[in-house]
Amino acid sequence: MSMPRPIPRAALTLAAPLLLALAGCGADTSRTLGFTRDPPDEFQVTTRAPLSVPPRLGDLPVPTPGTDRPQDRRAAATILAPGTAATQPSAAERALVAQAGAPAEPGIRRRVDEESLRLDAPPRGVVDTLMFWRPSGPAGITVDPTREAQRLRENAALGRDQTEGQTPIVQPRQRTLWEMLSGS
Known about the structure:
mainly alpha; 184 residues
């Protein structure tokens, strides 16, 4: 009966630093190396209409880049509730829309997405902690509450919209050279 060969010392000395370096890569190393599977987001998956060739190519409409495809122009009600016909809104629905106020500004979805992505910060790994050891400032801009309340009162008194005028912000104090050097 043969004895299993011991692991050579050179292999151990090479493997130990590699394992330590791999452990320091962060919490999502297995995802980076492809050991975990991420299923697709079911809300991001869309289906496209099948392609078809018309009987005569001269009957094709003139292409307009940047516009929606005609096959994709379906009413929202048909997509959300297939098999139901679009009806007039009820009195309760009209009251809800009237209570909601003015229509949303254009591009609000894009703006909300940008703001949420700006606030969503991934966890910091060891390398990030070593390279960027100074704490970053607070996210966002601080609104001056007393000047903002005064602006809103003036707009209400003059019958203007609440969004009219500049929003006053608190200006951050400049750090002195001593504060920058001492890290306080």
